Amino acid sequence: MAETAALWPAIRTTYRWVDRAVHILENEADESSAQVRRRLQGLLGAMHRWRTQAGDLAPGVQHFLKVTRSYWAGLFHCYEIDGLPRTNNDLEHVFGTHRYHERRTTGRKTGSPTLVIRGPVRIVAALATQVRTFSAADLADVDVEEWI
């Protein structure tokens, strides 16, 4: 325990920063995109200012700041658009579910070749049916002229 005692303050500091970033991005208070952006920007500023407190973990903190900066432009869309998955994992789950159902219905072990040709329409249809069930009457009432 005494051998690693000097490492713990830096670990505690960086863990608190990363944990705080997670809580800000989880947005449990359902704040606006601008509020989440401001809060995260404040945390990143503090991390940059006090990065020397991270000790040997300072290069990791610097990398965290660099990667967050590179994703900054698209990081807050999920708070502006209802239903947009917040993480790639959530988005991958949506596509994985589609692949699973397609394999199950066709019996194929690989994706259907038609997914490339008609895929965008099929994926949108699959996503829409996850949100609500459509009846034949819903489909019959569509005005094709509105699409153009």
Description:
- The chain is mainly α.
- It has helices spanning 8-26, 33-49, 58-71, 77-80, 88-106, 114-131, 136-140.
- It is elongated and about 70 Å long.
- The mean pLDDT is 84.
Measure the end-to-end span: 70 Å
Biggest sheet details: none
SSE class:
mainly alpha
**What is the subunit organization of this protein?**
single chain
Report the total helices. 7
Shape: elongated
The H-and-E topology, N to C, reads as HHHHHHH
Q: Which regions contain 5 or more consecutive residues with pLDDT less than 50?
A: none
In which range does the helix fraction lie? 55-70%
Number of strands: 0
In round numbers, the mean pLDDT is: 84
Question: Gyration radius, to the nearest Å?
Answer: 23 Å
Strand content: under 5%
Provide the descriptors you would attach to this structure in a database record:
mainly alpha; single chain; about 150 residues; 7 helices
